[in-house]
Amino acid sequence: MNYFPDEVIEHVFDFVTSQKDRNAVSLVCKSWYKIERLSRQSVFIGNCYAISPERVIGRFPGLKSLTLKGKPHFADFNLLPYDWGGWVYPWVEALAKSRVGLEELRLKRMVVSDDCLELLSRSFVNFKSLVLVSCEGFTTDGLAAIAANCRYLRELDLQEIEVDDNRGQWISCFPDSCTSLVSLNFSCLKGEINLTALERLVARSPNLKSLRLNRAVPLDTLQKLLMRAPQLVDLGIGSFVYDPSSEAYIKLKATLVKCKSIRSLSGFLEVVPCCLSAIHPVCQNLTSLNLSYAPGIHGNELIKLIRFCRKLERLWILDSIGDRGLGVVAFTCKELQELRVFPSGVDNAAVTEEGLVAISAGCPKLHSLLYFCQQMTNAALITVAKNNSNFTRFRLCILDREKPDPVTMQPLDEGFGAIVQSCKRLRRLSLSGLLTDQVFLYIGMYAEQLEMLSIAFAGNSDKGMLYVLNGCKKLRKLEIRDSPFGNTALLTDVGKYETMRSLWMSSCEVTLGGCQTLAKKMPRLNVEIINEDDQMEFSLDDRQKVGKMYLYRTLVGPRKDAPDFVWTL
Amino acid sequence: MSASGSVSTVSRDDHLVLSSEDSSSPVESELELGLGLSLGGGGFIKAQQQASGGGGGGGQYARILTAKDFSSVVSSSSCLSSSSSSLSRGDYVAAGTKRSSDSVAAANGSSQVVGWPPIRAYRMNSMVNQAKSVASEEYNSMMENKRKNSLVEKTTDVCSKNSASAKGRTSPFVKVNMDGIPIGRKIDLNAHGCYESLVQTLEDMFYQPTTRSSVQEPTRSSKLLDGTSDYVLTYEDKEGDWMLVGDVPWGMFLGSVKRLRIMRTSEATGLAPRLQESNGRQRNRPI
Question: What Å distances lie between residue A553 and A207, A299, A501, A528, CA to CA?
């Protein structure tokens, strides 16, 4: 039913930007499928093993931006052996061989080698943006290649990565002709950096909006950088250590006042808490503040800082803030949308249900929460649910595994039940504390929009998992560890897994036989058994319990790069 | 990779964690890391069921053992807290009561399990590293206590994934790269008692036909150690120098090796053969 020429339809499709919408559009008819695929520029692949690079390139020859995710989420917590997979080299190689004009590559939980970065830097003339989150496998040599060869580089963003052998010379590899940088984030690098080269780079980057430094950048360099880049919107401070009576401090104070555009602040990887008053002028305009890597900022100094941040929308903090500090946040940050409270590992410093209740009462716009705490009560969760039904992401981690409500000694079923019943737009949920099958009954009944669920040390029987699989129609990712779910739960609705991206089960009750049955019934799933102990053979005993199972839907069959300890059934 | 730690079984009745074999190395600040079929609480039940059922292998349960395990009888909290599965929840409520009284202690690590609390490895590492470098004295002393008690335990398995910190080896795993192969491997040095064993394992790793590498597989040559192959085995020591493997006693090698590289012989000229003759930082790959 094409009343318009293709060019017109293509122009209309330009306004359809979300991948979900574009996927829907491509299903309307063959003609729309063709127009859409030829005009699609940005592709998101949630599981790099669900499809092959060749097929992606074949379908979307106009690809400019590719986002790839590799390892499953629990890999972040060392539940996956090092060599499991997620290598991005084959993707880059395939893209390089094709005629795709790649401009942006965003990777999460993938293994990136120096050779891969080198290949990337040499293969795509217009390459502009590299964002790596929670990746591994490369050294600063690879970064040097990117710096040296990507002439129009705009963005180099490294988040939470252990990079080897920092020598700091990679920053000198940006040629003098490189003036296009908009975003540079190397805060996770551990080693020294060539400060002069950094200063010169910033000086010749008039478009620089985001700069996140590592701990090797001292305060006087920070001051010089800020002088050169007063237009910065996002700043990550490395080292913030100096003598408050020194000239450097006075200079910095003056410079910071001039940086009126800063909306996002992070870092403080090294800090002397008493000298934070220089930051206060910046605080009043901040919408995003990440102090989760700054254990040196705590107590009254932290609270003083928070009091200035009235416009904050996003706050990442350590639990050393305490319930009292969260009370201040609740009082001050009325625009708060996202809060993450990480454990600082400090004795006696922690947050409890009190802090969470205060936040839920004080911050009506809050919808995204990650909260590591000492304890939680049903009453508190019920109150939170009453105060706030906006949550889209609710991740609660009670540090003590399987801890019940300390007041009533009951499991936390009712509390979480209240959350899922109240928050109708909940998409992501992480559970903790003592939980029975009942909580899963509630989740299956009420969490209609739930897409991702993380379960650990919870439940009593297969019923728990079945409630979730039956009830949560939009479930995409389910990850379970150390919970008593077995073959019955796994096999009751095998078709469900093709509607999901992936399922992770470790230290549960599923057996080899169960997994094999599943694999046989569902050829379009890869059912991987991950076996770390080299000595253990893949015995044929069906009753043997499986340590780690990761299954995912795929269009390309078992992957060919699986290491020895991974057995795809 | 063999499990180098102890294996514990749980007797539910007396709530004790019993070690079924002695650890082979003394526990100072070192921690044993044992790996088994399943890590975490589920393994308790497996161990029990298999002990009573008498069948099946691989019923090993392992967790990160801490200094507390070796000092005296472990408190009841540590074993029950990580059990799951078919034990009735009533038991856990009882355990919870016990544990809530020392919940702070429990949360701070009387029972350790891989991947708990669920904090990204990078963040865990930086918590430890920051403890070493923060300027504030008060913070230092606080963190020092914390570090001794639980952070080091929490992050040991993380450290095993990463290169040893500059302050010294915290884990036996080193990275191994081979020229021409984009993907590196990791190897547990403690699993080997001598150079021959190490080289054998490396040869098995890198000379087997692998499908994950897109680079042409190097032709199998004779052993790396005897100088007749196209490649030599080198290592980077603590001072950043690249050395030929095999020149110093094994123990000394273990103490100074940071990572390994199987280097093309053509590139291996000029390597300082002896630790004492090293002459400053020398890298074979240009920065």
Answer: 42, 48, 6, 11
B76 touching chain A per CB within 8 A: no
**CA-wise closest residue to A294 among B143, B2, B73, B222:** B143
Tokens of B4: 């180098």
Q: How many of the other CB atoms lie within 10 Å of CB of B168?
A: 9
Q: What whole-number percentage of chain A has pLDDT above 70?
A: 97
| Neighboring chain B residues of A134 at a CB cutoff of 8 Å | 120, 122
Across A294-298, B52-56, B102-106, B134-138, the highest mean pLDDT is recorded for A294-298
Is a pLDDT exceeding 80 seen at residue B51?
no
Instruction: Provide the token pair at B56.
Output: 């099946």
Residues 6+ apart with CB under 8 A from A378: A405, A408, A410, A412, A413, A414, A415, A418
pLDDT above 70 covers what percent of chain B? 32
**pTM to 2 decimals?**
0.71
> Averaged over A260-285, what is the pLDDT?
89
The confidence score (pLDDT) of residue B212 equals: 43
Report the pLDDT value the prediction gives residue B107, as an integer from 0 to 100.
Answer: 43
Tens of pLDDT, residue by residue over B9-42, are 434 444 333 333 343 434 343 443 433 333 333 3
The two tokens of residue B94 are 């009882």
CA-based nearest residue in chain A for residue B142: A346
For testing contact with chain B, the best of A316, A457, A540 (most B CBs within 10 A): A457
DSSP, residue by residue, A200-265: HHHHT-TT--EEE--TTS-HHHHHHHHHH-TT-SEEEEEEE---TTSHHHHHHHHHHHH-TT--EE
Average pLDDT over residues B85-114: 42
Beta strands (DSSP E) in A399-484 are 428-430, 452-456, 477-481
Mean pLDDT of chain A: 93
**Across A134-175, where does the E strand assignment appear?**
155-159
* DSSP H stretches of helix in A436-476: 437-446, 462-471
Distance from CA of A21 to the nearest CA of B (A): 32
Residue A33 banded pLDDT, cuts 50, 70, 90 = very high
CA A88 to chain centre: 18
B109: pLDDT strictly greater than 70: no
Question: Which ipTM score applies to this complex?
Answer: 0.89
Q: In this structure, how many other beta carbons lie within 10 angstroms of the beta carbon of residue A393?
A: 19
- Give the model's pLDDT for residue A96: 96
How far apart are alpha carbons B49 and A115 in whole angstroms?
A: 48
Identity of residue B50: Q
- pLDDT given for residue A256 in this prediction: 92
Going from the C-alpha of A452 to that of each of A73, A412, A428, A486, the distances in angstroms are 11, 19, 5, 20
- Provide the β-strand partners of residue A370: A340, A395
User: Is the predicted pLDDT of residue B46 greater than 60, yes or no?
Assistant: no
How, if at all, do strands B8-11 and B16-19 pair?
antiparallel
Query: Cα angle vertex A265, ends A262, A269, to 5°?
Result: 140
Residues A204, A209, A210, A213: is their CA dihedral positive or negative?
A: positive
- What is the crossing angle of helices A30-39 and A19-26, to 10°? 140
Residues from chain A that touch B41, judged by Cβ atoms under 8 A, are: 401, 457, 482, 507
- Which pLDDT belongs to residue A539? 65
Three-class secondary structure of residue A155 per DSSP = strand
Judge whether A568 and A528 are in contact, CB under 8 Å: yes
Which residue from A270, A295, A156, A142 is spatially nearest to A212, judged by alpha carbons?
A156
CB environment B62-101: b (16+ within 10 A), e (fewer): bbbbbebbeeeebbbbbbbbbbbbebebeebbebbebbbe
Q: In angstroms, rounded to a whole number, what is the distance separating the alpha carbons of residues B66 and B30?
A: 9
- Interchain CB distance below 8 Å, B100 and A74: no
Closest residue by Cα to residue A504 from A537, A534, A478, A533: A478
Of A372, A400, A454, the CB nearest to B103: A400
